[in-house]
Amino acid sequence: MKIWKASELPPDWFRRQGTERTTTRQIENNVKAIISRVKSNGDSALLEITEKFDEAKIDSQNLRVTPKEIADAYAKVGEKQVSTIRFMKDKVFAFEKRLFDRGKIEISENGIKIQNVLRSIASVGCYVPGGQAVYPSSLVMTAVPAKVAGVPRIVVCSPPDPTGEVNPLVLVAADICGVDEIYKVGGAQAIAALAYGTETIRPVNKIVGPGNKYVTLAKVFVSKDVAIDMPAGPSEILVLADETASPQFIVLDMISQAEHGTDSVAGLITTSEKLAAEVQDLLGRGLSSLRRAEIVETSLEKNALIVTCPDLDRAVELANIFAPEHLEIMTRDPDKIAGRITSAGLILLGPYSPVALSDYCSGTNHVLPTGGFGHAFSGLSVFDFARRVSVVEGSKEGLRSVEDQVNTMAEAENLPNHYKAVEGRLEK
Prior knowledge:
Layout: E1 3-5, H1 13-16, H2 25-41, H3 43-54, H4 67-75, H5 79-102, E2 105-109, E3 112-120, E4 123-127, H6 136-149, E5 153-158, H7 168-176, E6 181-184, H8 187-196, E7 206-208, H9 213-222, E8 227-228, E9 236-241, H10 247-258, E10 265-270, H11 273-283, H12 293-303, E11 305-308, H13 312-322, E12 326-330, H14 334-338, E13 346-349, H15 355-360, E14 386-393, H16 396-412, H17 416-426
Parallel strand pairs: 1-11, 4-5, 4-7, 5-6, 7-8, 9-10, 9-12, 10-11, 12-13
Antiparallel strand pairs: 2-3, 3-14
Helix pairs in contact: 2-3, 2-8, 2-9, 4-7, 5-6, 5-7, 6-7, 8-9, 10-11, 10-12, 16-17
């Protein structure tokens, strides 16, 4: 793995050099074809595509997970796993509930009362990835905020294994979080079903959740017809460090993100050439003994990056250009550096705040913008499942207090009857 000097980088290199930032036209065409098939043929397309990509033979009668399957799932997982999912759900619920309550405000002034009220979306589809790993945590992160917001219909889609079953941990998490419907379907075909509906799956008002590039592309393509949360694709970590940072901690965190998949991104920006060399050395040996070693090695070989900078100013500048999903700050004064970060999905401060903490047990949400979308998007929260509505109640004295200002603006915009609507109410 090469160490780059910031001064040697082309101007746009750090935006996404070495990653699969763009997709091929063939992948785009494949995703569009899948969406079109599901729109046209409904369940039959879902079943054919599921058999092709997931090697699972399912018929429309067992596309939806049954209560018995959920009950059976508890027998297949450990009590400690169940209690951990409950613990995680409670942590996320508490944090999201505080956010939700803070969003309700009321102000009264000069006879005019305004409120900001929150109304839940009618239905939400939560995508939970499968494939190379299992993600009950992603189910918690998507379903719990929806529950806090009061969404009456929460639907989950997750790919089945070759036996036609959804992972039991995902089913247990869905039960604990109060999900209403679970379907055995993944990939772009699941996104199409949630967006447009089939004979078995009714469409939803919004689709949320992370996924691979096919899922992410599908969300983008259907977003003209149904709301989505954000383009949340392959996982990313960027560590911003000075000479005080532990190379071992950095390596552990880079590996932890690389094991998500071969398209994951792990990077280090540092002001210390010594630290960069130590991280490079540690990443260059001993990986073969890791669990998921092949995935880790491929991911690091394709997408890892180490960049040295002359000072923290340049390091912060590059971090903001990159806009990583997760930004770990391991410097002498991390809080001060964090105040200068303008683009990141989540910021983790100090040596004892690994991504694993926020992924599972901090109470924050781990569904975050990737691929540079941190410049404009925030991480998933309860506000993604609610609509803000302003409620205004005026009085005669309130109208009179703003009569002159309404008249001025109505004349300025050549809309005189706007003022007449006020004036008429104030006549004796």
